[in-house]
Amino acid sequence: MKLGVMELKGQKITIIGGGIGGLTAALALRHQQADVTVLEQADAISEVGAGLQITPNGVAVLAALGLKDDLAWCSQRARAVVLRHYRQGRQVVRLDLDQYAAGQNFYFAHRSDLISILANAVRQAGVQVRLLQKVDRVEPGPGPVVHLSNGAQCGGDLVIGADGLHSKTRKAFNNPGQPSFTGQVAWRATVPNVLNLPPEAQVFMGPKKHLVAYPLRDGSHVNIVAVQERGVWADEGWNHSDDPANLRAAFKEFGGVAGGLISAVDEVRLWGLFRHPVAKHWYKGHVAILGDAAHPTLPFMAQGANMALEDAWVLSASLVASENIEAGLKRYQQLRYARTERVVAAANGNAWKYHLRAPLAWPAHQILKLGGRFAPQRMVSQFDWIYRHDVTADPM
């Protein structure tokens, strides 16, 4: 990070949201000696969630904040990505990350573990975390005001909205816009790893649907994400309970390992997948947004959490490298907008590749096989622009 001209020491910064993006921003700014407060509407900093993939670009941020070892201790390091046929799990192609992505670390982490790591770090750093703080609206300006639902107000020199998909902060300076249903829903669950799956991402590809599975923590559990194309939409947000029987009915053709995993599900969440535009404005006055508040992202590139980690680092670094807060926020949006827009577009366009039906599925799988045999390095490196990007090494 370049030595900047703005002193953050003692600056009062309020962050709305105690999720991955908010806590990471709090820690990064506290490292610059800012006076940081996090407002969280829940009664505890916790996350019921399930699994997520922390890719090398996200790992770089955690490493820069001194948390890489904590992540490695409670996660599985991914060794490969394996694409399989849905019926009996026949392997189509296996891409060895140790061999073809040497020097890059991909981790399978439980969301609640990452939240715990960040929450412990911010508290140890002296960040104040205020629970049960429900935000009603945010008033931008040089002296921003956060209006709470209980009638209280707070603010500071800077307010950061890390308040997720339904961000009150984003609405303060962006038109709401209408998300569009993708025609896909997803189930998320964790099950015991009784099948002893190795630390690999298993992708089972079927007509109009696919299932992704990978182990978590010490390998004792497996995270499942199952995506289906359908016309009947589900509510957005991944925390809606559903009957496991619905998942089993939707994926009844899936056999082998996938069938075994699905049969083990006893609790499952369902959510509808919607496309959202990247926010046109990421700041106004002394108010900014990051993470899902700025650019909600479909899960098909596993970049939601990683983009929030990048945002948090770049926001802090941009402030340090600028003359004043508004110049720092302008720099932050300039540095992040094109990249997040490209990642969102990549995620929007990625799911169909796993959902091919006859007669296209067979030739597509043959092409994948040939690619895995003759050009595995090229297959692995096609998304280097995402994974090898290191915001902590980029000059501001």
Task: Outline the structure in words.
It is a single chain. The chain has 396 residues and is of the alpha+beta class. It has a domain at 12-48 and 111-177 and 276-349: FAD/NAD(P)-binding domain (3-Layer(bba) Sandwich), CATH 3.50.50.60. Helix content is 33%, strand content 26%. The protein is built from 13 helices and 20 strands. It has helices spanning 20-30, 56-64, 68-73, 97-100, 111-125, 168-171, 244-250, 256-263, 304-320, 325-348, 361-374, 376-381, 384-387; strands at 12-16, 35-39, 51-54, 76-77, 80-85, 91-96, 107-110, 128-130, 135-139, 145-148, 153-155, 158-161, 180-192, 200-206, 209-216, 221-229, 240-242, 268-275, 283-284, 287-289. Strands 6-5-14-15-16-13-18-17 form an eight-stranded mixed sheet, sandwiched between helices. Strands 8-2-1-12-20-19 form a six-stranded mixed sheet. Strand 15 and strand 16 (221-229) form a beta hairpin. Helix 9 (304-320) packs antiparallel against helix 10. The longest helix has 24 residues, at 325-348. The radius of gyration is 21 Å and the shape is globular. The termini are close together. The mean pLDDT is 89.
